[in-house]
Amino acid sequence: MNIVITGASKGFGRAIAETFAVQGHDLFLCSRNPAALYKTLEALQLHYPERSIKAMPADLSEKSQAEAFGKWVLGYGVPVDVLVNNAGLFEPGSVHNEPEGLLERMMAVNLYSAYHLTRTLIPSMIERKQGHIFNMCSIASLHAYPNGGAYSISKYALAGFSRNLREEMKPHGIKVTTVYPGAAYTNSWAGSGIDPERIMTAQDIAAMIHAASQLSPQACVEDIIMRPQLGDL
Ligand SMILES: NC(=O)c1ccc[n+]([C@@H]2O[C@H](COP(=O)([O-])OP(=O)(O)OC[C@H]3O[C@@H](n4cnc5c(N)ncnc54)[C@H](OP(=O)(O)O)[C@@H]3O)[C@@H](O)[C@H]2O)c1
């Protein structure tokens, strides 16, 4: 299968890339920082030399770049079997006093990126009547909490996008899975003082996404909700 993963240079995205590479799939990867992205590409290619792994740096919060990345993938002329809309950014804040412009930035990176990339890739999936789209939401898409602010609003919106897409794609044979992870240790948590053992690993999220991608065409995992064993922080 061909797997497109955004935000793949580190964290969940990198773990998802590794999990699919181990299972013998080919990858198209994207994130903004070219050095970090190509470093990840080289490390994966070294471990899985038989896999085709390609990468394009792009800032997916820009509509033109999200579309350009999608067109670059389509340019290879291979079917996109799985799209993981994972790129995202966490910034805490509160509606009443977070910095001006934070909502716009959070919406651009957490929602519009997935919306525009999906719209670029989905016509080819519809044509083939096959494909699986994962949208990386959050427990912050399900529950409001103090200091959630613009991040939580954007993740609620992403869940709305994902659930609408699920309904639309039923007759087209395309699966849509909304992923709602609680805290899992990635760079986002570095320096926070959180004990990595208290929360999940990026590999936990990757394992569930891979498992959900392996079912028969007539089964769709609609929601994946995951929390640390001890519950939310
Ligand atoms: N870790 C958690 O506890 C947790 C919990 C719930 C949900 N999530 C969600 O899971 C996703 C991944 O989180 P993570 O913890 O793995 O984050 P991370 O370690 O910070 O990685 C984020 C990835 O996204 C890329 N990225 C950020 N902005 C981008 C943009 N505008 N265009 C393209 N790529 C971009 C980053 O690379 P560049 O910076 O180079 O672009 C990086 O590859 C996010 O959507 C996050 O909201 C995380």
Automatic annotation (TrEMBL):
<dbReference type="InterPro" id="IPR020904">
    <property type="entry name" value="Sc_DH/Rdtase_CS"/>
</dbReference>
<dbReference type="InterPro" id="IPR002347">
    <property type="entry name" value="SDR_fam"/>
</dbReference>
<protein>
    <submittedName>
        <fullName>Short-subunit dehydrogenase</fullName>
    </submittedName>
</protein>
<comment type="similarity">
    <text>Belongs to the short-chain dehydrogenases/reductases (SDR) family.</text>
</comment>
<dbReference type="Pfam" id="PF00106">
    <property type="entry name" value="adh_short"/>
</dbReference>
<dbReference type="GO" id="GO:0016491">
    <property type="term" value="F:oxidoreductase activity"/>
</dbReference>
<dbReference type="InterPro" id="IPR036291">
    <property type="entry name" value="NAD(P)-bd_dom_sf"/>
</dbReference>
<dbReference type="GO" id="GO:0016020">
    <property type="term" value="C:membrane"/>
</dbReference>
<keyword id="KW-0560">Oxidoreductase</keyword>
